Amino acid sequence: MVFSKSRINPSYPADPAHLVFSFFSFKSLFEACHFFSGNCCSSCTEPQKVSNHISYEKYCFRGSITCPCNFGYRRHQVYIRNSRHTPPAKEYLLDSMEAFFQCLQEEDHPGVRAVLGHCLFVSIHPYMDGNGRTGRFLMNAMLASGGYPWTIIQVEHRDRYFVALESASVDANILPFIEFVVSEMDC
What we know:
The protein is an all-alpha fold. Helix content is about 55%, strand content about 0%. The chain is built from seven helices and no strands.
């Protein structure tokens, strides 16, 4: 099995600064999820879902984003620098994000959910900026939910990270990305 809980270091994380960062990240995520779930109902129509996604994003990033036009899904086509992958056109974002959320809900294994979730999210590229950071945060939140360690992509390994993502999104070969994430867990 690629994702083995035996890889978890019982003393992880040893760095107190990492504990503080993780605590605040999860605290903000918890608060935002609570806010979001309190403003949504099971009979939401599509426009209400988008509105609530925007409210969720505003709550998550309150104080750090000042221009209202920066909230919500991107309104233009984007291209990823140095990549052969082209994210879906803006007209397909809602359907792509719905499929993304459905995939996450249907996958039981947290390791598989984390890797697939990260790859799908960054290939959809729903925002004008911050997709990589958000994708890595989502991956770590899903890994942590399954008892796996918070996995930092080392700066020295950034090129391997991009090559593995490119392989997943362009060549439909996710194995290099899985191997990369597992190797980063060991760092």
